Amino acid sequence: MNTAPIPPSADEPRWLTAGEQRVWRSYIEAATLLEDHLDRQLQRDAGMPHVYYGLLVKLAESPRRRLRMTELARYAKITRSRLSHAIARLEKNGWVRREDCPSDKRGQFAILTDEGYDVLRRTAPGHVNAVRQAVFDRLTPEQQKSLGEIMTIVAEGLQPSEAGADLPWLR
């Protein structure tokens, strides 16, 4: 009787090894816990979820604190519908306002208001502290560098370059 292992067929998936499975599950657990940690901190300190904080930061970093909605959706990696809902909530708080794009009748800008900038300025120290405690204070400088390099490789590999890519922020 032949006891040699049968090689996988071309249709067979490349299953994760036990070591790869441990790494993957550790990543998923850490990413989930980190997002929850940051969400709770921002809800407690500013009454907003982490994704909203990221939108305010991107607007604050943009020229004249304004960005086209399509660019903001691309940055946040969310659907335009989800972005529109988020911006509506931020508008209700007085932190963002919308303005029609003069060169494109369908386009809109999201603009960070002075009140939104003040909220961001007050919230940033607590957020940075939460990030530092959760990530950077736990890693050596070498580990920080490795983590940055690894995440850059993963992000670049997942960023589609073809024009017709099915991306959430284009929907």
Comma- or semicolon-separated keywords:
171 residues, globular, mainly alpha, 3-stranded antiparallel beta sheet
Detailed description of the structure:
With 171 residues, the protein is mainly α. Helices cover 59% and strands 8% of the residues. The protein has 6 helices and 3 strands, in the order ααβααββαα. It has a 3-stranded antiparallel sheet. Helix 1 (18-46) packs antiparallel against helix 5. The longest helix is centred in the first third of the chain and has 29 residues, at 18-46. The model has no long low-confidence stretch (mean pLDDT 90).
Structural class call reads: mainly alpha
The largest β sheet comes out as: 3 strands, antiparallel
Distance between the termini: 56 Å
How large is the radius of gyration? 21 Å
Strand order of the largest sheet: 1-3-2
Q: What is the mean pLDDT?
A: 90
The helix count comes to: 6
Question: Could you estimate the helical fraction of the residues in percent?
Answer: 55-70%
* Element-level helix/strand string: HHEHHEEHH
Number-wise, the strands total 3
Assign an overall shape.
globular
Beta-strand content estimate:
5-15%
Contiguous low-pLDDT stretches (5 residues minimum) are none
Brief overview:
This protein has helices at residues 18-46, 50-61, 69-76, 80-92, 114-134, 141-158; strands at 66-68, 96-100, 108-112.
Describe the secondary structure blueprint for this structure.
Layout: H1 18-46, H2 50-61, E1 66-68, H3 69-76, H4 80-92, E2 96-100, E3 108-112, H5 114-134, H6 141-158
Antiparallel strand pairs: 1-3, 2-3
Helix pairs in contact: 1-5
